[in-house]
Amino acid sequence: MKALRKEKSEAIRMRKEGASYSQIRQKVSVSKSSLSLWLHNLPLSNERINELRGHNVVRIERYRETRRKTRESRWATVRESIAKEFPKFTNRELLIAGLFLYWGEGGKTKLATTTLSNTDPAMLLFFIRWLALLGVSKNRLRVHVHLYADMNVQKELRYWSRVLGLPRSSFRKPYIKQSNRTDLTYVQKFTHGTCNVIFENRDVSEYVLQALGHIRSLFAGERHL
After folding, report:
1. Which residues make beta-bridge pairs with 191?
2. Which residues have a Cβ under 8 Å from the Cβ of 41 and sit 6 or more positions away?
């Protein structure tokens, strides 16, 4: 009982000095309900509450920053390991990687057309390089960009022309969606809209699709095709 009175006295003293419940409980081993009973007539001022909230925000941001640095350091270590494992790719490896990319992301509905649509310019640059392995020159490519109504069309066309290294003459008239980019939940993903790189040629299209058919048969077997 004496110990409980001592804890109550300490809690009241800390409260009068502006301590929060969580700060008091770090020193006094009692339940929050007990503190509420002891301190119900000792509310904090609005100014002190704002100070505590500000302190919590700073503490949370410091914690997040520490976590971010730890995570990025871990990622850097993983990237270094991967860079040593895959210092470069052979043309054969790039050809196979491109086939698997096309299996998942490439267009397969239009005959005599090999096409990839994405928001990531790096993926499209890889696709263009992959097409070169199939004997396709860049001057035979066509580009179709899908944009939103609130985007600067000419600015985005200049962006894709520059990043892909393709002249504006390779671009078809862009498709403009009636909705706004700012209405999207994940705006960052669509920073420059969606770009579709297209090559129209029967032989290349048939080679790619038949190669995918062969790959599927290796994993699924003919009975599942």
Report:
1. none
2. none
Residue range 69-80, pLDDT digits in tens = 899 999 999 999
In sequence order, the 6+-apart residues with CB closer than 8 A to the CB of 116 are 101, 102, 105, 106, 107, 123, 124, 127, 196, 197
User: 142-148 and 194-200 as β-strands: parallel, antiparallel, unpaired?
Assistant: antiparallel
* SS3 assignment for 55-74: HHHHHHHHHHHHHHHHHHHH
Q: What is the chain's alpha carbon radius of gyration, rounded to the nearest angstrom?
A: 31
Biggest CA–CA distance in the chain, Å, is 92
φ and ψ at 110, to 5 degrees?
A: -95, 125
The pTM (predicted TM-score) of the whole model is 0.69
Residue 127 DSSP class: H
CB-CB contact of 135 with 105 (8 Å): no
Q: Whole-angstrom Cα distance, residue 221 to residue 225? A: 7
Q: What is the mean pLDDT of the chain?
A: 87
Coil, strand or helix at 144: strand
| Nearest-angstrom CA–CA distance, 41 and 205 | 79
**Span 196-217, pLDDT tens digits:** 999 999 999 999 999 999 999 9
Beta bridge partners of 195: 118, 145
**Two structure tokens written together for 46:** 């609005």
Q: Supply 52's token pair.
A: 């505590």
